[in-house]
Amino acid sequence: MAEGLLVVVSGPSGCGKGTICKELLKRNKDMSISISATTRKPRKGEVDGENYFFLTEEIFKSMINKNEFLEYAHVHGNFYGTPKKFVLEKIENGENVFLEIDVQGALQIKEIYPDGVFIFILPPSMEELKNRIIKRGTESEDDIKRRYKNAFEEVKYIKKYDYLVINDKVIEAVEKIESIISAEKCSVDRQSKLINKILS
Ligand SMILES: Nc1nc2c(ncn2[C@@H]2O[C@H](COP(=O)(O)OP(=O)(O)O)[C@@H](O)[C@H]2O)c(=O)[nH]1
Ligand SMILES: Nc1ncnc2c1ncn2[C@@H]1O[C@H](COP(=O)(O)OP(=O)(O)O)[C@@H](O)[C@H]1O
Fold it and tell me: Residues in domain Guanylate kinase-like (predicted)?
């Protein structure tokens, strides 16, 4: 069986990564999303084991020591990491897995898994980004400032990614990502086993 795709989605806070991934999962039953671990405190309405695994710094660090993360990074003052087991099992099983992670994590994944598909999301403008973070209403004023400032650092890494999707209308961004995945699945490199089978 062909391996599933590992799809990395990054973008500044408030650009709409979460919204887009949620919609993608709703529409595509063969996709799953990796649930990250974090030391950030849960936002109102966030559920442990659904949005994130909310951990203490002590437990997070013990997972680092046990090599249980595919990648991890310190972002906006908290630790975030991708638990290894879930992602590797799904991919081996032929399923497509999304990682919604920051640029530091994406670069680590690129080193160990260059076959991944790397997508960067941008809002239509930085003004709109600020409006979206404010409108979401989940962050303190200091955190909004920090996330907005970090956005300008994160966008410096866009060229490390394979694709850029602008999230103006959610549904259009979702459709673009679905098209990227369809095209990637048709790539010659990813189909060498199938080519051999057909030609044998
Ligand atoms: N490296 C890494 N970054 C992550 C992971 N999970 C989430 N992030 C990133 O951490 C940042 C903050 O996430 P979050 O606190 O949910 O805030 P949001 O981006 O404003 O929704 C975002 O850039 C996420 O993509 C992870 O497992 N690893
Ligand atoms: N295309 C869009 N147009 C308008 N608002 C959006 C759009 N995409 C997301 N939002 C809103 O912007 C806010 C931030 O989106 P979210 O998915 O939480 O971003 P991220 O996960 O990148 O931090 C949310 O309130 C969400 O409803």
Answer: 4-182
CATH number at residue 129: 3.40.50.300
Residue 1 lies in a domain: no
- Inter-CA distances, 183 with 104, 179, 186, Å: 26, 6, 5
**Within 6 Å (CB) of ligand 1, which residues are found?**
13-14, 17-18, 36, 40, 71-73, 75-76, 80-82, 100-102, 104-105, 147
Residue-level length of the chain: 200
Nearest ligand, CA 173: 2
pTM for the full model? 0.96
Please give the residue range of the domain that contains residue 159: 6-199
Binned average pLDDT, 10 residues per bin, the chain of 200 residues: 90 96 94 96 94 97 97 96 94 93 98 96 97 91 93 97 98 98 94 91
The yes/no answer to whether this complex scores an ipTM above 0.95 is yes
Residue nearest to atom 28 of ligand 1 (CA): 81
Distance of CA 116 to the CA centre of its chain: 11
